[in-house]
Amino acid sequence: MKKLLLIFMIGVFGLSYSQEAPAVLKTGFSKEALQQKLEDENGKSVTIQQILDLHKGKVLVIDFWAGWCRDCLKALPKAEELERNNPNIDFVFLSMERSKEGFDKSLVRFNMKEKDNYWFASGWKNDFTNYVDLNWIPRYMVIDQKSSIAKYYAISPEDPEIQQTINRLLK
């Protein structure tokens, strides 16, 4: 009987979770989100605003990921391909690792040391991730040359809207 109930529940509710697109696709950031602190590889504190300022005037792709995330690791080759195919675009990788040690290990293990990496020492739930409705990773955003959000929600580097948005912004 218990097996039948379990099979029924799996059939009705499923075993896997999936990303749910936010109801509102935002085009800008709140003041609180921009002041959210992250840390770079050296442990230096930096805000989202400072990261955006470093890339102002360029199209920027933000990649939320973690080394423990199976979906992120499956997407990594396609994310690297997107980066290779867009050499004039900046890419920033925001890690959702649970510790600085995990962040450092993932950067080495997945050959990310030469990339622009930051991690949320404050954890998954913070002013920035809450504002952008981060409910799963990987997640990708495209930011335009004026630091506005051009593509708010993509769950795969193969989402054709990412490349379409990049192409539109470069015209």
Structure description:
With 171 residues, the chain is α/β, with parallel strands linked by helices. The protein has one domain (25-170): Glutaredoxin. The chain is 37% helix and 19% strand. It is built from 7 helices and 7 strands. Strands 5-4-3-6-7 form a 5-stranded mixed β-sheet, covered by helices on one side. InterPro entries: Thioredoxin-like_fold, Thioredoxin-like_sf, Thioredoxin_domain, Thioredoxin_ResA/DsbE_sf.
Concise summary:
Helix content is about 35%, strand content about 20%. It is of the alpha/beta class and about 170 residues long.
List keywords for this structure.
171 residues; alpha/beta; Glutaredoxin; 5-stranded mixed β-sheet; 7 helices; 7 strands; Thioredoxin_domain; TlpA family protein disulfide reductase
What proportion of the residues form beta strands (DSSP E)?
Answer: 15-25%
Q: In angstroms, what separates the terminal alpha carbons?
A: 62 Å
* The CATH superfamily title: Glutaredoxin
Give the overall form.
Answer: globular
Mean pLDDT: 91
**Which residue ranges are poorly predicted, with pLDDT under 50 across at least 5 consecutive positions?**
4-17
Helix count from the secondary structure assignment: 7
Q: Could you give the order of the helices and strands?
A: HHEEHEHEHEHEEH
Itemize the secondary structure elements and their pairings.
Blueprint: H1 2-13, H2 31-34, E1 37-39, E2 45-47, H3 48-54, E3 60-65, H4 70-84, E4 90-95, H5 100-109, E5 116-119, H6 127-131, E6 139-143, E7 149-154, H7 160-170
Domain Thioredoxin: 27-171
Protein name: TlpA family protein disulfide reductase
InterPro entries: Thioredoxin-like_fold, Thioredoxin-like_sf, Thioredoxin_domain, Thioredoxin_ResA/DsbE_sf
